[in-house]
Amino acid sequence: MKNILRAAAIISAVSLLQACATAPADKKTAQAPAKVYSRSVASMGLNQVQASSCPKTMKSQEFYAKSDWKELIGLANACVKGERWAHVEAFAEMLSIRDPKAPWGAYYWALAAEYRNDMARALWMIELAVKKAPDVGILHFQKGRLLWKEDSHSPAMEALVKAVQLDGSLTEAHVFLGQIYFRDQEYAKSTQHFYTALQSRPSDPIALSGLAESRLQAGDTSGAIEAMKRASLAYPDRYEFPLREAYIFETVLGDKVQALQAYKTAMGIISSKRIKGATVSTVEKKIAELEKVTRQPTSAVADKKAPVPEVKR
Q1: What count of Cα atoms within 13 Å lies in the side-chain half-sphere of residue 168?
Q2: What's the average model confidence in pLDDT over 49-69?
Q3: Strand, coil or helix: what is 116?
Q4: Which of 116, 30, 104 is nearest to 73 (CA)?
Q5: DSSP class of 277
Q6: What's this model's pTM, rounded to 2 decimal places?
Q7: pLDDT on residue 46
Q8: Residue 187 in contact with residue 195, Cβ under 8 Å?
């Protein structure tokens, strides 16, 4: 299991902001309540961001004065992806000065502080962001991640559940919760969160393997096999998925023929990637064992023929 699912605390998962509507452009904008700057954003995964958009050198604040808050968020996201944390903090400051009532400056400061392992500052900043915009799910997700990292599991769960209640599109939060519920053997809940994550990200490897393992533990072997096959199709160069599929066929279902086929698929990937070590010998041994079991010798077939009645003279 530990080779298929990551540990429950996927601390590296970060949801970023995507400005998806136009903010008011009149002079009163800077004094508008935080909701003006939170209703027009959606969450997005770090894998959707291009680090190349982060400037190599920061220009003056006067230069960025031409950019609206949505553009600044885009630049901050790119710098998070590129791990240019001094740049992230610079954009956080601009966002805070530009829109003091909006939560985004504090949010990016929290991300930067987490990277520097200044957890006290990170938690303080995310609490500030939540106070400014308590109805924004992504802020509660960040809070939950930080609390989980600090082993404050009960308040972390409260924040994570609140995050998906406010924003059901937070894929990373659903994957995070799915792994926690799987750890706690609440397989119905883990299934639901992995399934929800796959609605928006059909090929997420953690969600696919998590769904497969949740269904397996719940006794739904057909659901487990289906999810594992989806993972194998989505990631044809990863041998761990057909290997797990082979295990389910052989050990759980007792289907030696299907297990042999899955082991051979895994072996093909292993050979193509020139992987060496214990895994290779284990898979080769399994293939040899199952080929022996599934092969039907001619003598054995003859023995199983219907008996010929003896004719008495």
Answers
A1: 6
A2: 83
A3: coil
A4: 104
A5: S
A6: 0.79
A7: 63
A8: no
